[in-house]
Amino acid sequence: MRVVNEIYDFITGGSVVTPVGVACAIAAAFLMPAFRAETFVGIVALTFVASTFEAPN
Q1: For the CA atoms of the chain, what is the radius of gyration?
Q2: What is the pTM of this model?
């Protein structure tokens, strides 16, 4: 289980906002197929902005 935690920490960089934002972007892309690209890019961009304001670990 420790290996999975290490891989997860490496991918997310210890962020809480990033995995939640990416999951929301993927879910929104599947729920709104008419605006798939715009929705995905918009949510990922907002996630990037939100992660810059996240407190460092």
Answers
A1: 13
A2: 0.71
